[in-house]
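Quick one: co-fold with pyridoxal-5'-phosphate.
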Amino acid sequence: MSDPSFEADPEGLRQALEALLAPPSTEGAQPLPGVLPEEGYGEPAVLDRLSPIVLGGARRLGAPDALAHMDPPTPWIAWAMSVWNASLNQNLLHPDVAPVARDLEARVVDWLAPAFGMDGGHMTPGSTLANLTALWAARELKGVRRVIASDAAHLSVAKSAHILALDYRAAATDESGRLDAGALPDDLSSTALVLTAGTTSAGAIDDLALAGRAAWTHVDAAWAGPLRFSRRYAARLDGIEQADSVAVSAHKWLFQPKESGLIFFRDNRAAEAAISFGGAYLAVPNVGVLGSHGAVAVPLLATLMAWGRAGLEARIDRTMEIADGLWQRLGAHLKAELYGPQVSGVVLWRPNDGRSAQSVRDALPAGLASLIQVGGKDWLRHVAANPNADIDTIWGSIAGVL
Ligand SMILES: *Cc1c(COP(=O)(O)O)cnc(C)c1O
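Sure, here it is.
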């Protein structure tokens, strides 16, 4: 007799979907058991117990005033694909249990890589691991012993250098948060230079014309990489095609569920050869950091098929318009000081009337602004990752506290 927990239960799945579609509510939330329950509650009871917690308690990233972080809302086609994925549980490590999923990942990588001048790559659970993978390849292929990035680079770059036993040096940034080229050493022959396209704190894009100056250039485009798919903004990342590797987080501006990221290489064949391991139980070499690896490509592929490049561009351009609108309104306000130019949908500002950024943030609705330190000062930060953000709603809240 087959175990019904492993069969599709239309009634149970309908109950789960109804809970998802209902207005979020924490009503009826009960504390969870403190220890592993001896007897199970059964699936329908678990849906009832968890919906006020998991669904009711979560921040809604697609709300009209959600604008605080690099975490976007996700399109429903990606939800559907995530359910398919969970039910199939493909493992790309083994071609015989993932006969089509490997090809789907290769396809989506082929679609995206040319925008960055790269010829291949693979998916990772995010840019932290994409950065590590890139610097690993740099060490194997070019014998680099040192990593240099700006002092605004993401902490995963220093973390990767540490894991790989490479020296790490942070170079100074200028007043708009870009790497100061004058701060780089003349000799970059044993160096991996990491340029950031869209710094986490301020959205600054380093001068990508520096790509090619070092033994290896990696562009951490975790956040701003997707601007390459907008005709209006693609040129902001010109020069990226001279890099040796590029990291992009698909769970940021490609609107994917976590954990979804990409590492691209200009010479993917050489890079893969340098970071592959064989093994007795493996039919194909294991490429990169991960062992078991799920079909995260499927939601991304489906989203890109549903929207096309033009549909992706429309969403990115809309979020950029929200950032521009906010930037202009803040710039015209006497009580706000702005940081740097706004180049990738990240807006930083602080009150200039003596109040702390923290107190202003505390007065704003949760999810509208994050708090960040740049140049020794606190700033309020907005990240335009939400195509459903509404500038009038947002400005209403900000103007109300200013
Ligand atoms: C978010 C971010 C990362 C890390 O990416 P994850 O996908 O969170 O692992 C790296 N670099 C930059 C610039 C980022 O903004």
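If it helps, Residues 159 and 366 are 30 Å apart (CA to CA).
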